Amino acid sequence: MSPLLEIRDLYVHFKTRDGVVRAVEGARLSIERGRTLGVVGESGSGKSVTALTVMGLTRFRNSTITGEIDFDGIDLVTLPDKQMRSVRGRRIAMIFQDPLSSLHPLFKIGWQIVEAIQAHEDISKEAARARTIEALREVGIPSPEKRIDSYPHELSGGMRQRVMIAMALVLKPDVLIADEPTTALDVTVQAQILDLIRRLKDEYQTAIVMITHDLGVIAELADEVAVMYAGRVMERTSRETLFTVPELPYTWGLMRSIPRLDAPRPRRLDSISGLPPSLIHLPSGCPFHPRCPYVMDICVATEPELKESQPGHLVACHLAPKDRQQIGRDLQTRYRS
Ligand SMILES: Nc1ncnc2c1ncn2[C@@H]1O[C@H](COP(=O)(O)OP(=O)(O)OP(=O)(O)O)[C@@H](O)[C@H]1O
Ligand SMILES: [Mg+2]
């Protein structure tokens, strides 16, 4: 199957007073209908900027965007604003970390969904309202015929995320980008929201891009995984492979920082030492080299390309593939036992 959405060599740079921020640097991603792509990486690795660029929401005066974003035969990088608006929301929808910022605070939630339906479809207000109530019910909002007239601030965080998902349900987008949709929520609500997203995928064959810090969410939901660092996609493979033979030292670091389920929750996670690099003054060679326990001379001199290590497994690292596979497998065996 050919991908529904394919990002090729995407660069997104922002000119600032301190210099050029290289937020996305040659990212390559793809996703098929009915599949979930998990995107992981530390804070500042370019996950949100990549997503916002797909939505056409990084077209600022100080930004430069190059590369291709092929969505069902349309190049979203060069698509004029007017056409972009008709893709956004209807064909590609996004759920943000904080749904307060994507719901207008001064309008009733029902009105916002009805508006969204009417913007894309020739349908009466009454019919759109009925469909909205149905969708609110479907995402588990109690007494939706009353809740439809609430303002966003009258709802809890979990309820607001449900409203965003209800909006996605009524518009039935081809792609749903969920940017940390559960970070602000407690564990039970988190599980319910993930369930809803999974249903959306199963029922409508929606392609899901799930952005998260949380490898637990990836383990539960993703079919494919992309690991981002300093604006680059540095490892890409299936979920199974990522959790059995991860091949990137950075990914190993992320995995060591997940708390083990069987151990009491540690006070601090054993996170990767050092800080993510400045995106204005990047290190030479591999951007991860200053933090990498396996650094070699070549890593300081040359940036590794994202290359196929095994069929379907792309890795950007200078370590020899068989060494990476050995270390990755050992690490996972230790982690599991
Ligand atoms: N409009 C902008 N102007 C300048 N720099 C920006 C702009 N938007 C984002 N950045 C920078 O781009 C980099 C990537 O940010 P991004 O929000 O994509 O990270 P992220 O991976 O989503 O992180 P997090 O996990 O914290 O959400 C950051 O250094 C950020 O400060
Ligand atoms: Mg983000």
Can you give a write-up of this model?
The protein has 337 residues and is α/β, with parallel strands linked by helices. The protein has 2 domains: 5-91 and 173-336, P-loop containing nucleotide triphosphate hydrolases (Rossmann fold), CATH 3.40.50.300; 100-172, no CATH class. It has helices spanning 47-54, 81-87, 109-120, 125-138, 144-147, 157-171, 187-204, 215-221, 239-244, 249-256, 297-301, 321-336, and strands at 5-16, 19-31, 36-40, 63-71, 74-75, 92-95, 175-179, 207-212, 224-229, 232-238, 307-310, 313-315. A hairpin with a 2-residue loop joins β4 (63-71) and β5. The chain is globular, with a radius of gyration of 21 Å. The structure holds adenosine-5'-triphosphate (ATP) and magnesium ion (MG). Adenosine-5'-triphosphate (ATP) is lined by residues 14, 16, 21, 23, 41, 43-49, 60, 213, 279.
How are the elements arranged and paired?
Layout: E1 5-16, E2 19-31, E3 36-40, H1 47-54, E4 63-71, E5 74-75, H2 81-87, E6 92-95, H3 109-120, H4 125-138, H5 144-147, H6 157-171, E7 175-179, H7 187-204, E8 207-212, H8 215-221, E9 224-229, E10 232-238, H9 239-244, H10 249-256, H11 297-301, E11 307-310, E12 313-315, H12 321-336
Parallel strand pairs: 3-8, 3-9, 6-7, 7-8
Antiparallel strand pairs: 1-2, 1-4, 4-5, 9-10, 10-12, 11-12
Helix pairs in contact: 3-4, 3-6, 4-6, 6-7
Magnesium ion binds at residues 47-48, 179.
